[in-house]
Each structure stands twice: as C-alpha cells, then as structure tokens.
Amino acid sequence: xxxxxxxxxxxxxxxxxxxxxxxxxxxxxxxxxxxxxxxxxxxxxxxxxxxxxxxxxxxxxxxxxxxxxxxxxxxxxxxxxxxxxxxxxxxxxxxxxxxxxxxxxxxxxxxxxxxxxxxxxxxxxxxxxxxxxxxxxxxxxxxxxxxxxxxxxxxxxxxxxxxxxxxxxxxxxxxxxxxxxxxxxxxxxxxxxxxxxxxxxxxxxxxxxxxxxxxxxxxxxxxxxxxxxxxxxxxxxxxxxxxxxxxxxxxxxxxxxxxxxxxxxxxxxxxxxxxxxxxxxxxxxxxxxxxxxxxxxxxxxxxxxxxxxxxxxxxxxxxxxxxxxxxxxxxxxxxxxxxxxxxxxxxxxxxxxxxxxxxxxxxxxxxxxxxxxxxxxxxxxxxxxxxxxxxxxxxxxxxxxxxxxxxxxxxxxxxxxxxxxxxxxxxxxxxxxxxxxxxxxxxxxxxxxxxxxxxxxxxxxxxxxxxxxxxxxxxxxxxxxxxxxxxxxxxxxxxxxxxxxxxxxxxxxxxxxxxxxxxxxxxxxxxxxxxxxxxxxxxxxxxxxxxxxxxxxxxxxxxxx
Amino acid sequence: xxxxxxxxxxxxxxxxxxxxxxxxxxxxxxxxxxxxxxxxxxxxxxxxxxxxxxxxxxxxxxxxxxxxxxxxxxxxxxxxxxxxxxxxxxxxxxxxxxxxxxxxxxxxxxxxxxxxxxx
Lengths: 561, 119
Known about the structure:
Structural class of chain A: alpha+beta
Largest sheet of chain B: 3 strands, antiparallel
Region (Disordered) (chain A): 381-411, 424-561
Number of helices of chain B: 6
Number of strands of chain A: 12
Number of helices of chain A: 17
Radius of gyration of chain B: 19 Å
Oligomer: heterodimer
Strand content of chain B: 5-15%
Largest sheet of chain A: 5 strands, mixed
Number of strands of chain B: 3
Pfam families (chain B): DUF742
Radius of gyration of chain A: 47 Å
Largest interface: A-B, 76 and 64 residues
Protein name (chain B): DUF742 domain-containing protein
Organism (chain B): Streptomyces durbertensis
Shape of chain B: elongated
Helix content of chain A: 40-55%
GO molecular function (chain A): kinase activity
CATH class of the largest domain in chain A: Alpha Beta
Order of helices and strands of chain B: HHEHEHHEH
C-alpha cells in the first residue's frame, strides 16, 4: 500500500487517495484489454473489466477505511498506555516517596491536616480526577491511622513520664531523708550500714525512673544549677549501679561539667557502667578513667568480660543509633536494650559520642566523649569534704594582709571566717569576719565551711598568721591552698595579742571571753569545742596549751593577756 | 545538720556508700571513736581519693574524728572508714585522747574544797 511509505505525520491525504489508485489501475487494465482483443470479445471484456474495477474499488475503499480505523485505534492504545504509565509512576511515587514522607512528618509531630495540605498540589499531577481522589483517600487513611498510633504512643509516653516523675520525686525525697538518717545515726555502725544499703537501693530505683523518663522523651531527673566536678559526676554514676564496688576509679582530669549536662552524663555513665559490670565476671574489676582530649573529655569504661564480636558490636551501635525513635515498649523488658536505648537517646540529645570497642583486657571498652562545650573549668561545687580536690596542695600567691583586718583570737581560731574577703571589707565589718560564714562571700565561690578549725589549730611558727585554706579553688576550678593574711596590729585587740603570732586553740577559746563585745565567738566552731574539751579533759588550765598541741609544739606560749 | 545536708544535696551527686566503697564500719581499727586524735604523717599525693586528701590536709595538726567529720560534712562512720584506710596505709597516726582517768577524782576535789571551807 502506498500509505506505508508516506510520512507518518501526514497519513490523511495518502489514505484519501489510496483506494483510487488500484481502482484506476484496474480500470486502465480493463480498458487496455478491451481495446486489444477482437471486437467480438470486447463487450464481455468491458463488462468483466467494469466488474473488476468496481470490486477493486470497493475492496480498496474498505481497506483504506480499515487502515484509518486501525491507525485511530493505535493512537488510542498509545494514549492509554501513556496514561497507564503515568498512573503507575504516580502510584509508585505515592508508595515510595509520599507515604514515607507523610509518616515521617507525622512522627515529627506535624498535624495531619497540615501534612495533607502541604501535599495538595503535589499529589498525582496529570491524572484523572477519580485517580487523584483515590490517591487522596489512600493518603487520608494512612494519615489517620498513623496519627492515631502516634497519639496513642504520645499518651503512653506521657503516662510513663508522669509516673517516672512521681517516682523520681519520691526517690529524691527518700534519698534526702536517708541522708539525714545517715547523719543522725552515723555513729552506730550497724544502723549506718543498713542505711547505706537502703540508700543504694533507692538510688537504683531512681535510675530506673530516670531511664523511663528518658525513654519517654523527658529529661533525666533533677537539674543542677552549678558546674559539678567530673570526679563527682563519675562517682555519681557509680552510685547508681548495683556493683559499684567493682568499679575502679582511676585518674580523673580536674575539670567540671556544666550544670545542665550533669544529670544526663551521670545517667549515661550509670547505664554504661551497669552494662560493664553486668556482662563481666563478678570477680573482675571495671576500670573507669577520664582524660582530656582535643574534642573534650574522654571517659573510658573497660571491663574484663566477654569480648564483643564484630557483629554484636555493630548491633549494639545500631541500637545506640536507633534510640531516637521514641519509647518502644519492648525496650522496657530487656535490660541491655533498655540501657543502650537510654544511652543512645542521651548521647543524641547532648552530643556525647559513644563507641564500643574491644578492650585490651579482653572485654568491652566503652568510650564516651563529652564535647568541649559541656566542660568548664569554672569554680565547681566541691563542698567541704573536698570532692574534686584530688591533687595535693599547691602554692598560691598570698593575699597581702592589710593592717586594718581584725585579729582577735577568735578570728584566728575561726580561720575560715574571713578568708578571701577583701581587706577593705574586713576592715569595715570586723565582727563579721569572725563568723564561719560571712555574709559577703568571695566572688569565686570559695568554700568557707571547709577547713576552718584546722587552720586555727595549725601552728607553723612565724607563718601561723597565714592560715591555709583547704578547699579553695582557682579560677580554673582546681583546689588550692591559700594563705590568709592576718593583720599585724588590730585596733580592737590588746596589743600583746598581735605580737606573737602563735595562738593556741585553748587560749583563743579563753580569749573570747575577754574580747570586745562585737567579736563574739562563732556559733559553730568544732575545732574550738574540741580544743576546749581536750584542754578541759586533760585538766590543764585555759592559759596552757592543750594536750595535743603541747606534744606538737612545746614552745608555744599562751596569749592570754 | 539540715543545712549541711542541703549543701551536700545541692553540691554532690555521689552517695555515701560510694565514698566508703560500701563499708559502714572500719575493718581494722575499730577503736576509733569521736575523740581519737588524728595526725597526718604526710601530705596528700595526686590520685588520692579527695576525701583522703582532705583529711590529710586538715590533719596537718591533730584533729579529733568528730572534728574531721564536721568539717567534711560526712557522718562519723564514713570518716572512721576513711581514716581506717589512711591508718592501714600508714599515712596518719591515731592517738587516743588523754584519758579522763588521769584526772583527780572530782569527789576528792570536792572533799578538799569542803575541807578548806571548813577551815
């Protein structure tokens, strides 16, 4: 057929003529045959030719019509195939992109209507209205189901966090009361031991409540307002595990952790230490060290248990990674998963980097990197018992004393009283400096409750007036000793008192009675009480040095005027 | 002790049993009591437990166990355990206080006073 060779873009003119050509050829052949044969046969030939031409014309016309119909059908098929391909592509896109996107946004807490509205024009472009409606219905159903599930999980989380908070409150109160009882019954070893065990159990309950709160998306437990020394943080972590006695605390770098990160860090450490002690033989030790590294502080926990296979290690790290997806109720059942989920969540929230490696001891070495932003060298909260003061004494520049500082014997004995208070302030308020806790504290938050009496009792010859302070801190948070400058010539004290710097505790106690009225004895002066007690029990007069001091410094003499 | 307790609670997250390693009473020197005098034989060394170091620093001159306990804001049992550690490593000396028995009998003194008054 001729239209086969015609350009495909222009089939219509060729197909209009396609039935004419065979008809014309047949007519021409019939006419030629009629002209060539003898005249007698011309009539039948003519008729036969006419019939042949007509039938050819009919057949050709029919063929052309069918050809056109076939072309139309082919176009229709192509159009439908295109539509089908679009629908398939859109359905695949719905399944592979839109639905995950929608579910992810719902999980992040977006509202279902917002999510659907955001997809409005994006949904199934170029499809029929029915198809778009169907896609929209599918999305709506999925969104409804997912949001219902998210609501359920949210309420479950809230319920868990709520319960955990209440447990935490009770545990905190209980811990405070236990601490009170420990102070009250501190002299009775049996009762004290029982209290310690109760305290330990309470701490374990508190950790569980903290874990549930963390898995519920809340903060773990209490807030700390001030930086806490890393040493205390590590021991705080140890406080909350069962086998804390197996944890060996090695060198700890002397830095502090900023307040908001203290509780998460304690809890993370507690969970890691719990894993380490739980999955190592009971007779082995768990080693805990903290060293400074470029990116912050690296806390290492090494146990002597079974080594992690590469596959188990990957699984554990994956567990740490997956911890973001919220409270999985299945987590609450299994201890290692619970712990790792908590660690993972806290690590994600506070930028801790946790990695699990094979330890040189054969067990697992967990390394927790605390970022630099959470580390501070600011004055820490080390209190009187010297937490964080793990280094020895170090020399510091002395505060040069001014002559206006009060120098009553009670003040010297008080020792702690005016330490660090600027001389001008001390001169302005001589009476207050004799108190153990002066109203005006030094700006770098020195601890004045620490070692008051020892300085008072401390006799160092000519340097006795420079009283060393025990738990002071440098601006970098490190403990140090500082000499307290004493006045050489107080205005209120008898002149003889300031001549000899060596003042015994006993004489100081007695001197209190002769001091000017403004300089009353500090209310709490354990050193004084004990010194008086000792001197009293040893039967010596108040003018004589006390028994212990006599043995220490026989040359010491009384200051009693 | 309520005030000290709050300071403690605010200041330190660790519990007492961690400080003593779970011990509630000294193992060797059970003779330590409130008035036993403690003297440090050496200064603190780096790496010591902070409480040990604090005791060594404050016991530069003799201090009673009760005083150490008060300064550290720690119960006496904890302090005796810590001092027991230091005693067993020879870092401190414990000295019993002068016994009250060395004093003259108060009744005797009273009798003397009465006798003098009667003169």
